[in-house]
Amino acid sequence: MGRPTARVASGKALLPAILAISLLLPLLIAGTALAADLSLSSKTYGLAYEREMAGGQKNRYAPLYEYLSTDATNLGGKPLSFHFYGWGRVDLDTDSGSGSTSGEVGSLYMEYLHPQGNAQAKLGRFFLTEGAAMEMLDGAFVKATTPVGLGVSLYGGIPVEYSILNNTSGGDSLFGGRVFFVRPGFVEIGASYLKENGSFQEGKDRELVGGDLWLRVAPPVELTARATYNQSVSEMASQRYAVRIVPGATFDISAGYESYTYKGLFQPALNPAFVSPSVDTDDKVQTIFGIVDWAFVPGWTLEVAGKNIRHDKSDPGDANRGEVGVRYTYNDKKDVAGLSAAFVSADQAENEYQEYRGFASYSPSKLRLTLDALTQQYKQEINGKKNQYQVVATAGYQLLAALHLSGNLTYTQSPNFQEDLAGLIRVTYDFAMSTGGKK
Amino acid sequence: MMHRSHAVKILGAALLALMFGCSAVSQTPSVPPKHPENLPQGRVDCLECHENVSTGALKPYATFRHSRVFINSHGTYARQSQNLCTSCHAPAFCQTCHAGKEELKPNVKMGDRPDRMAPHRGDYLVTHQIDGRLDPGSCYRCHGNKSDSRCKQCHR
């Protein structure tokens, strides 16, 4: 029996549906007094940009996007909630993507949150992060912890995936779970399993076995670990081990080791960028990293990060990335300004570049202005150029308590674009009948 | 198409979990479904209001201080206790970046929030050639099997 190859809903149908839900759902829920807490967020983006392509051809684009999310909690006075998130696009000029319309329902699910033991259940479409799983799923999820600290989570359904790889579609079904032990403030350790039935690389299913650990060895010191083994190809997929020291509210430092194999991690890839011949599937990446976040005086934060990336294969070779930045928070934490510099030194000149960035915001009363400038310098020319520049300026105004209007103007020069001038209008409507706030 | 045996397994697992939920759930209070106070814009520090260990998340509040360190490793914490994330962040927050076939880059959507650590600033079509060669695993997490068809214009 042939497997379904398309799980992509028609974009044409999505935008009206999203708009209809945005208008009707609050009325329905409010009208029936089912929801004690309701929030609705609508973000409309109107973009306009013109691009001069290689060869001198100029194209104009004007896509219109609507992003909608609705969260209704405490339904009927019970620990039940409903969540929806989706977006749609309509092009008013040249097609900006594949076709003149597009869209997606990202979340659409009911959730039960038990008042004790973090027990929960979800049913519908949701984004799941649990042990070895980081999936979008049409299905069910349940989780509970027992009084002795042992817990279990289980999930199953149909994966929401989008394949652009010829002759390979998404999986047919996906299920898995995690057993864990947690001792408050001291340790959480888990073992997980995931199986996705499909025909991925080498014609195999995806079958993962994972482990995860959070351990507080002393009040300011914690260890974290997570590892995933791909049983389908008998290869370690990924590992990450880190030590973190958080002695107080002003200093945070972490260092660790991370590695993954292309064969193990990319086995279920549905994007040709991650399969042969785009990549050498025998390669392995090992990274040593360190990060420091230090609020050295009130309002000022220093951020330093570095990592050494090593490949088994000489192409692409090894590299070091370093980054240093300072941030200043002011105006009662409403505004932030920052400067940062980053460099990548590598075995191969084509992988070396430097990046410098500065940004600031200014929010007097209902007005908000921001400026963000970035430049990158490449050691080796890309499309005949060794640098790119981008400046983004925005201005916004809070028209009503729930209604904010803002606009971006973006100017870019890069190896891809001789000149790229883009405008964006953003209308944000945030409505809440609740006691708490979502960010 | 889902196999029948898998459907049976899932149903059985759900029943087992339901039994857990009804009879043997820990008495520790859960993470509230929604943070009771409105949160300010920007990076939060739970320690400004909370002390010691979260009764719901069962980890110290200091762990969830939204520093650069936490932001870089937030996936590790989300894989153990996603419900803590959703207490303050609606599902839409995660899916600003972790999306199925997103077309607008996060930094375009959040152009008026330059303080946010939004990936892919600048003309990232250029820079992704380098970052993708050096650390394709970081790209894979979002683009491996949840992709924009525009990738296919070059990656055939």
- Following the backbone from N to C, one meets helices and strands of chain B in this order, namely HHHHHHHH
Measured distance between first and last alpha carbons of chain B? 27 Å
Major pleated sheet of chain A = 22 strands, antiparallel, barrel
- Structure class of chain A: mainly beta
How big a fraction of the residues of chain B is strand?
under 5%
How many domains of chain B, as an integer?
2
Q: How large is the share of residues in beta strands of chain A? A: over 45%
Main sheet: strands, sense, barrel of chain B: none
Order of helices and strands of chain A: HEEEEEEEEEEEEEEHEEEEEEEEE
Continuous helix count of chain B: 8
Low-confidence segments of chain A, ≥5 residues, pLDDT <50?
1-12, 435-439
Write the topology of this structure.
The complex is a heterodimer of chains A (439) and B (156).
Chain A: H1 11-32, E1 35-52, E2 58-61, E3 63-75, E4 80-91, E5 101-113, E6 120-130, E7 133-145, E8 150-159, E9 173-183, E10 187-197, E11 206-218, E12 221-230, E13 235-245, E14 251-261, H2 262-265, E15 284-297, E16 300-311, E17 319-330, E18 335-346, E19 353-362, E20 367-382, E21 385-398, E22 403-413, E23 420-433
Antiparallel strand pairs in A: 1-2, 1-3, 1-23, 3-4, 4-5, 5-6, 6-7, 7-8, 8-9, 9-10, 10-11, 11-12, 12-13, 13-14, 14-15, 15-16, 16-17, 17-18, 18-19, 19-20, 20-21, 21-22, 22-23
Chain B: H1 4-23, H2 68-72, H3 74-78, H4 82-88, H5 91-94, H6 106-109, H7 124-134, H8 136-143
